[in-house]
Amino acid sequence: MDKISIRGLEVFANHGVFKEENVLGQKFIVNAELVCDTRIAGKEDNLEKSVNYAEVCNLITKVMRNNTFKLIEAAAENIAEKILLEYDLIREVTITLKKPWAPIMMSVDTVEVSITRKWHRAYIALGSNMGDSKGHLDGAVKELDADKCCRVKKVSEFIVTEPVGGVEQDDFLNGCLELETLYTPYELLDFLHKIEQAHNRERIVHWGPRTLDLDIILYDDVVMYEDDLIIPHIEMENREFVLKPLCEIAPYIKNPVNGKSIKQLLSEIQK
Question: Which UniProt keywords apply (predicted)?
């Protein structure tokens, strides 16, 4: 990916913990590094195929001037999010926000914070075997796509599968979707739980029936093992009802733990 850099943008704004900072204001300096593909713009010499850095400077200035944040961390987060939501071409952004007049009663050149934020790619498994199962799955897809920090890119066909785990219950309707998101894994997990709760999901019987089940299967190339979140999903390689719809939309995406593609994993359990 290519990069467009904005350095030393000066903005007078009213951010800070102290009341005087909010009232009197002070100078801030912003650097922005925008990761995007500029090849077509460069080959065609066409601004419409690139990112207009003058517009980005105006956006940064508006965020800084139209808000009052206690922390420069909050200002940086808001700038990064606004840029990523505004410009589809930008995949990643690094914001460095400097506060040269920081009231710390010591001689320093500047105090600054630097953050990097990006669009992440996640794969979500969907399942339901209570009530209007298709309605629950369709609703979850719409609710994910309606959230400003999520973009549903692909959705598999829904398939009917037999339940696993030994609990007597109705067959499931299962599917998978590909998602771009600004959420961290835990933020995404929390959002999925909220959608489940909106569909009256109850966690009473382990492996039991449910109105809606949403699981993070993959998230970029992240490998994490926590008590409440394991990525890649710990059971994905044993679940044909996950691998089959996932293979439909992403056959060659790989499990970062063993390097095997979804297509390969599916063929192994179907032998």
Answer: ATP-binding, Folate biosynthesis, Kinase, Lyase, Nucleotide-binding, Transferase
H or E segment and range at residue 196: helix 185-198
By C-alpha distance, which of 247, 182, 250, 239 is closest to 215?
A: 239
* Active site positions, annotated: 99
Domain ranges for the chain: 2-118, 120-269
Full-model pTM: 0.92
Integer angstrom CA distances of residue 51 from 85, 124, 247: 13, 31, 34
Torsion sign across C-alpha atoms 127, 132, 136, 137: positive
| 67-112 confidence digits (pLDDT tens) | 999 999 999 999 999 999 999 999 999 999 999 988 888 888 899 9
Half-sphere exposure of residue 110: CA atoms within 13 angstroms, side-chain side:
15
Residues 6+ apart with CB under 8 A from 224: 185, 230, 231
Q: Do the Cβ atoms of 95 and 81 come closer than 8 Å? A: no
CA distance 52 to 125: 37
Q: Sign of dihedral through CA atoms 17, 20, 23, 25?
A: negative
| Second-level CATH architecture of 2-118 | 2-Layer Sandwich (3.30)
